[in-house]
Amino acid sequence: MRIYPLFFSILLTLFSCHQKTQSTEKEQPQAIGFDASFEAGFQHISTLLNQQNADSANPILRAAFLFMDTAYVGKTLEVGNDSLPVLNLRQLDCLTFVENALALEASDGNRDSFIQNIVQLRYKNSNPQGYTSRLHYFSAWMMDNIAKGWVKDVTCEMGGTPIQFHTYFMSENPQYYPQLKADSGLIAGIRAMEAEIQAQTFCYVPKQQVASVENLIKDGDVLGITTNIKGLDFAHNGFAVHKNNRLYMLHASSDFKKVRITDQPLADYLMQMKHMTGIVVLRVP
Fold this sequence. Notes:
disordered N terminus, alpha+beta
């Protein structure tokens, strides 16, 4: 597939929230594994979590709001070989924001539990065995974490429309991924992931219908935003949050470079985005 340079920066931002960001020393992702900055950051955020009133808000949002205003930085996971998870609490993209919030809430502020939760959420069968074991596509992330009990797909229950994702972007464009460019043998594993996605039928709510199902979506639901960009499945994701009887999304924004709530209700936000087609709704049991 030929990718024109003008469109590639848009595609890269959409795919798994990867942002084409200029590399500076300040923006480099934290070291893999258990480094000092992670330890200090986790100590701080777990203290805040434990100080909160457990009855004060939805437990998922209680954890997610602790990341409010955290910097958006793309490609924070694109280091190393995925034999250890990248632990980065100060730089997030849309999916690592979701992972960190879910892992934190389920950990009750315990460091070892948090790390274990990140591994479970991020890797196929909870087993980090190299680059192809990471759940690169959000649809693969969904499938694996539904099977592990982290989330339940409730989209069909609210009248969602069947959809299949024809994922192939990574395997057909290895030149844009340092690990795939350096080792073409990894492409077979990515193709296997893509084939598994293509074999499944999901449901989504078309964006024209999102306003009509707002009352069925709960605070703290994980929202995946589907896309019409060829070779991709999702453009973005975040958490559902209601304000003034309307549905908004708490997300790591590549436009505003930080974690924030959308300015507009989600239904209005989607209608302004030509490349976004609808939503999938995942509920945390």
